[in-house]
Amino acid sequence: MAKILQIQLEQDSGKSLHDDELRRSLIDLNRAGVGLMEIVTAPDFSTGTEAAAFIKELLLILQTIKVCDGKMSEGSLRVDANVSVHHPGQPLGVRTEVKNLNSITGVTKAIDFEIKRQISELEKGNEIFNETKSFDYVTGKTVTMRDKERLQDYRFMPEPNLLPLRLYTNDTLPTGLSDDQIVNVDKLRDSLPLLPAQKRQAVQDKYGLSYNQAQFLVVRAYYNWQHFQGLLRCIFHSICFGFCQGEEGLLEYFTDVVEETNRDPLLTYNLLANQVLMYLNREDISIHNSPVCSKRLKELVVLLSHKTISLNTAKKVLEVMFEGDTRLPPDIVEHHNWKQITDPDKIEEYCLDAITKNHKLVSLYKGGKKKVFQNLVGQVHKMAYGRAEPNLVNEILKKKLDQM
Predict the structure, then answer these.
(1) What does the pLDDT read at residue 223?
(2) 322 membership: H or E segment, kind and range
(3) Which of 270, 276, 261 is nearest to 212 (CA)?
């Protein structure tokens, strides 16, 4: 949680590009005039990770309401962090401003470094100067840009051609004006989609997932001298160049599978988070372009729920589908004869065979070295080509060994 002190609209004035080797600076005016919104928070953060967590949540909100794509590396949003340290109960110390942080990791590292630097300087008896700094991503250190003690950073000028913006609520609406002539805060609030916090809570309540699991689905993935007080200034371009829907797409994909199959949400989540996304990341494709659509994953979840296949077999089916097989999972399983063996008598045969062929492991187990049990389990699965139902294997194999 952080209090918002101020929100203001500006225009991008361009940027400077500095070439140290040629000892010259270039001016890039390509984005000059583009609208910017600046959000200024109260000094409510105590660590770099807290500030980064706030930025991540802010990014999610901005993406959800479709006002910014959140691509920090492309300049859609950047962060200026004002950092100071102080002892509990004392006034805030002299602050430095670390400008133009363009990644979540950069926010965390820059703030944490600056906290440690200021503490170190104060403990040596040195003074902290009010200055503007940048963050060197290579060295992981902040670098002085200019001294604020002598230079004024900003010179704001009012724009006489801009009319005052007056906000109303349902209770304060003036009469005789149409909707397009006023800004009704209540009406705007009612038109908002579900925000990230609401989505997380809804996922937890409906599907019984943990906070972290719900966060993963919504985010798709930062958590004390702890008395640093951080003031963040977040600046983002109000003109976007394509809205990223990766997070929303993942949640929709998940709910589509769970609600259609009426199966265990946790099983679906684990399969999606641990397996499907692994392949998507490997191939560098989005959930929307996945060769395994929600319909095909539904079929796979049904096979797992009915114990027609094991988790290891499910992984193999996914591998086959991501390699280009367009058949549905039941057809793939049937073609490769991958159905799980659940017949206790058949599994008992494999267990007895493993015991007979592994006298040394059996002797170690009977001698008290229980860890070798997993080695014997592995031998059973090897004989069954990975198709034996794991719980039955463990139960029957242990029973047979204990009877010896």
Answers:
(1) 27
(2) helix 311-322
(3) 270
Query: What does the CA dihedral 53, 55, 60, 61 come to, rounded to 10 degrees?
Result: 120
Q: Which two tokens stand for residue 7?
A: 């929100």
pLDDT of residue 138: 92
- Alpha carbons 15 and 33: distance in angstroms, whole number: 12
Mean pLDDT of 88-105: 92
Report the amino acid identity of residue 218.
V
Q: How many CB atoms are located within 10 Å of the residue 258 CB? A: 22
Q: What are phi and psi of 388, to 5 degrees?
A: -75, 140
Phi and psi angles of residue 168, each rounded to the nearest 5 degrees, phi first: -130, 160
Cα distances (angstroms) measured from residue 194 to each of 60, 107, 385: 11, 27, 47
How many residues appear in the chain? Answer: 404
CA–CA distances in Å: residue 155 to residues 16, 100, 152 = 18, 19, 7
* Per-residue pLDDT at 72: 84
Each residue's pLDDT tens digit, 310-347: 888 999 999 999 999 999 999 999 999 999 999 999 99
Interhelix angle 104-123/48-64, nearest 10 degrees? 150
Residue 242 has pLDDT above 50, yes or no: no
- Which helix (H) or strand (E) element contains residue 401? helix 390-402
Closest CA to 365 of 401, 331, 318, 324: 401
**Cα 38 from Cα 11, distance rounded (Å):** 10
Q: Tell me if residue 54 falls in helix, strand or coil.
A: helix
HSE-CB at 188 with a 13 A cutoff on CA atoms is 9
Instruction: List the beta bridge partners of residue 26.
Output: 17
Q: Could you give the 3-state DSSP secondary structure of residue 136?
A: strand
pTM above 0.90, yes or no: no
The whole-number pLDDT of residue 224 equals 28
Are 95 and 86 within 8 A, CB to CB? no
Distance of CA 341 to the CA centre of its chain: 38
Residue 171: CA count within 13 A, CB half-sphere: 0
- How buried is residue 121: exposed, middle or buried, by Cβ count under 10 Å (0-12/13-18/19+)? middle
